[in-house]
Amino acid sequence: MNEKRPRILFIQPNNNYSGSCRVLLTTIKDSYGDFDYKLITTGTDGILSQLPQERIVFIKYPTFNGRIVHGPSYLLYCFKLFFVALCYGFRYRQFYINTIMPFPAALAGRMIGCKITYHVHEKFINPDIRKRVAAWVMTHIKAKRIYVSNYLKEAYDDHRSNSEVVYNKLSRDFLQKVNVVPIENRRRDTIVLITAIASKEKGVDLYFDLAEKCPAYTFWLVTGTPVENAVKFLKGRKLPNFHIFQGGNNVGRFLQQSDLLLNMSNPFFSQETFGMTILEGMAYGLPAIVPNTGGPKELVEDGYNGYKVDVTDLNDIKMKLNEILDEKNYVRYCNNSLKMFQKFNSIY
Fold first, then answer.
1. Residue among 187, 152, 132, 181 at smallest CA distance from 295
2. Nearest partner of 56 among 93, 91, 88, 102, judged by Cα
3. What is the pTM of this model?
């Protein structure tokens, strides 16, 4: 007689190409592939659509005459998520909630006595009422909590025995495609890469200003959304050394051609809690310049595999770029980046 497979219900608010979605996809494929599972999510145009369609329960975000009305649409979404999770909860007695936002699912699971695990990726700056409620539920409901960095665990002041820090890992699929070009064979076109949605939170405006200050380098913005969104965000500004690409689920080809990775998440608007793009760059041996706050600090050691900086100090960042990309230093930084990657990611 075949042993009954364990059952688990995953909940992710938005199916897109964000770091939290990529982490959830890796978690499901590498750790829960043999489980009897379902995933509840919103949106069909994202990386989670790689999972078998029969495993996914898509919830359509409510609209009025084809338009989202933020307050009413969100309330209807919460009710819908609560009742869908409640229905599936009678079969799938373990809930795995990715990010803190799907709190209605946590309430539904708790109501019927399901085991709840939260995978916490975010800490909000100046949160609105929705985010305050979500954070309150996450911190007060009976659940196991997995944080993506020590910074994030401390930010929630969580010292409970069943809470732990688990650094994000790169998927087997990603690692199998990694082709590290030997450092001595790199083209050295001095390509400085950032992979982010064009927004102030991700510091893309600062990134453009940095490109203007550093005409000797080539700057690539790889975004998971259409290029025209980034063009609109930058208000049509152009530079000969600044290029925008849509990466989607294929950032590896850009990482392979780049020389250095930047993460310029602006802590004034949003706090980066880990930095999946940094880890991806490290897998390709790319040195990194990252914010001096939040989770990225745990991935980079100053003068070893990159630098931690104030992302608003463009003159300092320019100096750090010159330091790392100098021929007499570059090989050392790249080798150290590969070593740091080994520290943070499992080898399959």
1. 152
2. 88
3. 0.88
At 19, is the pLDDT very low, low, confident or very high (cuts 50, 70, 90)? Answer: confident
Q: What are phi and psi of 302, to 5 degrees?
A: -55, 130
The token duo for 197 is 């949605």
CA dist 105 and 78 (Å) reads: 8
Q: Are strands 36-41 and 218-223 parallel, antiparallel or unpaired?
A: unpaired
311-321 pLDDT per residue, tens = 999 999 999 99
CA atoms within 13 A on the CB side of 83: 6
Task: Write the pLDDT tens digit of every residue in 262-294.
Answer: 999 999 998 889 989 999 999 999 999 999 999
Residue 312 neighbours by CB under 8 Å, 6+ apart: 206, 266, 268
8 Å CB contact between 302 and 308: yes
pLDDT digits 0-9 by tens, 122-158:
999 889 999 999 999 999 999 999 999 999 999 999 9
Q: Which amino acid is residue 343, in one-letter code?
A: K
Compute the distance between CA of residue 337 and CA of residue 45 in angstroms, rounded to an integer: 33
Asked which of 8-12, 169-173, 275-279, 287-291 is least confident by mean pLDDT, the reply is 169-173
3-state SS, one letter per residue, for the chain: CCCCCCEEEEECCCCCCCHHHHHHHHHHHHHCCCCEEEEEECCCCCHHHHCCHHHEEECCCCCECCECCHHHHHHHHHHHHHHHHHHHHCCCCEEEEECCCCHHHHHHHHHCCCEEEEEECCCCCCCCHHHHHHHHHHHHCCCEEEECCHHHHHHCCCCCCCEEECCCCCCHHHHHHCCCCCHHHCCCCCEEEEECCCCCCCCHHHHHHHHHHCCCCEEEEEECCCHHHHHHHCCCCCCCCEEEEECCCCCHHHHHHCCEEECCCCCCCCCCCCCHHHHHHHHCCCCEEEECCCHHHHCCCECCCEEEECCCCHHHHHHHHHHHHCHHHHHHHHHHHHHHHHHHCCCC
